[in-house]
Amino acid sequence: MAEKKSDRTRAAILAAARERFGADGYERATIRAIAADAAIDPSMVMRYYGSKEKLFAAAAEFDVRMPELHDVPKERLGEVLVRHLVERWEEDDTLRVLLRTAVTNEAAAERMRQVFIGQLTPTFQRAAIDQPAVRAGLIATQALGFALCRYILELRPVVDLTTDETVAWLGPTVTRYLTEPAPNQV
Amino acid sequence: MAEKKSDRTRAAILAAARERFGADGYERATIRAIAADAAIDPSMVMRYYGSKEKLFAAAAEFDVRMPELHDVPKERLGEVLVRHLVERWEEDDTLRVLLRTAVTNEAAAERMRQVFIGQLTPTFQRAAIDQPAVRAGLIATQALGFALCRYILELRPVVDLTTDETVAWLGPTVTRYLTEPAPNQV
DNA sequence: AAGAAAAGTCAACAAGTGTTGGCATATGCT
DNA sequence: AGCATATGCCAACACTTGTTGACTTTTCTT
């Protein structure tokens, strides 16, 4: 056991940071507020993470953990994917942190791109889906739009959807984005 | 002609405000930067608009101008709607201002709700579409997600879509959200 | 041309920001 | 035990923010 006490406050800072970044966005989440939540002094945050930027980088670490899609029947692709994404969104608040901050913070936007283009595209490629990048982009529009309306804007009808209803509504959309031949270019 | 000179700077301030709010979000768009863009003194902004909040309220005035849908054939609803929304988005940067700010600013979020629930729902109701609120919410997820990925996150594959390609991809999605019977509730 | 009103400039304020260094306390090793 | 090191707190810094009031210049009426 190297340093037990410091590890605990380190973790407390990170948890508070995620909470604040997720609730307030990058600029409105102040070091002082995060430190207060973690019940320590603001200077501790600097000692442990160096700067606000680096703290954010640590708080926004995320992996979407894409499942492999080889043996999923084509017409169920959307269902599987939507259910996975919704669950991922509910269990790990890091994605919400990213969404809230990516709009005004370039580093967060870059990480968002890595997740939704950089992680979806190769998965589709391995599943022998043509034009994987375009399809990843389209699915990102639907997935991120859903999260935006549900967790950030809190549009009543979207907040009220159950997981099953969500899958029933969005699943076919995603399936189509994955299987429909690309429209003719002009 | 009441006051010509003041009207011109008033408009210059509003234009600069829209630019900055749209590019930087609410908190990072400073009064000083807006004033500099408009080539006037920061105190002028206060004299004309009272406060940053009120300036923002003026800059975020928006009407989505929904077309009536009575005599659009059911299977072309999505096509018509998507084309209208994309055009609206390209011609009026106010929507981009709203999107960039709604994530961290409650007033902007409220206006977003008014636009996408408050203006879509009654239009669908007048077109005799059942469950108009849920369908408005679903369409908001797809429309806002598209805008987020294209104008804010700038995901390459989404930025590269032409208007026609966008309509071809998203049109059927929106049509389905408008015409598909609601899935069974649990 | 004289004076009032409008338009614009300047400097400062109070508050809040990220960040830093000095100093106290606790912890663990020998 | 004593000491070095890790951990923590305090006060202050330099800077930026929205906002204000006093002052000067322009514009227009009469």
Automatic annotation (TrEMBL), chains A, B:
It holds the Pfam family TetR_N. Keywords: DNA-binding. The keyword DNA-binding applies. Residues 30-49 bind DNA. Residues 7-67 form the HTH tetR-type domain. PANTHER family: HTH-TYPE TRANSCRIPTIONAL REGULATOR RUTR, TRANSCRIPTIONAL REGULATORY PROTEIN. This is TetR family transcriptional regulator. It comes from Kribbella karoonensis.
